Inverse folding.
């Protein structure tokens, strides 16, 4: 029982450090930040990719009220390549990253995302 407080403290520290900064997911590279809200940025990215590809684009809400979302490149399965839209790590606004996936062409994805920031 004397180790229980130490275990609880260690577990809390690990959880907090996992959420403390960018790079929370492997395979995600930072593209940039925006003062726009996450829903506005997500919608812009999805519209851009849908217009270019003439295919449906999936947007997955990650947090309630669309505070965070994953916008998948056309043809990608859940968790596949796409934009990772999250609240900014500091201050207000939105942080956006690009998750790469196997077999996905992400060559123009960063510039498409940049246009929406």
């Amino acid at each position: 029982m004397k180790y229980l407080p130490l275990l609880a403290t260690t577990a809390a520290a690990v959880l907090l450090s996992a959420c403390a900064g960018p790079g929370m997911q492997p395979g995600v590279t930072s593209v940039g930040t925006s003062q726009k809200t996450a829903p506005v940025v997500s919608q812009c990215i999805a519209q851009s990719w849908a217009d270019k590809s003439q295919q449906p684009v999936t947007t997955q809400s990650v947090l309630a009220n669309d505070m965070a979302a994953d916008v998948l490149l056309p043809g990608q399965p859940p968790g596949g390549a796409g934009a990772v839209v999250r609240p900014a790590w500091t201050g207000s606004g939105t942080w956006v990253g690009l998750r790469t996936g196997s077999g996905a062409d992400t060559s123009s994805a960063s510039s498409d995302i940049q246009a929406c920031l």
The CA atoms of residues 70 and 84 lie 5 Å apart. The mean pLDDT is 83. The first helix runs from residue 4 to 19. The beta strands are 28-34, 59-63, 68-72, 82-87, 94-99.
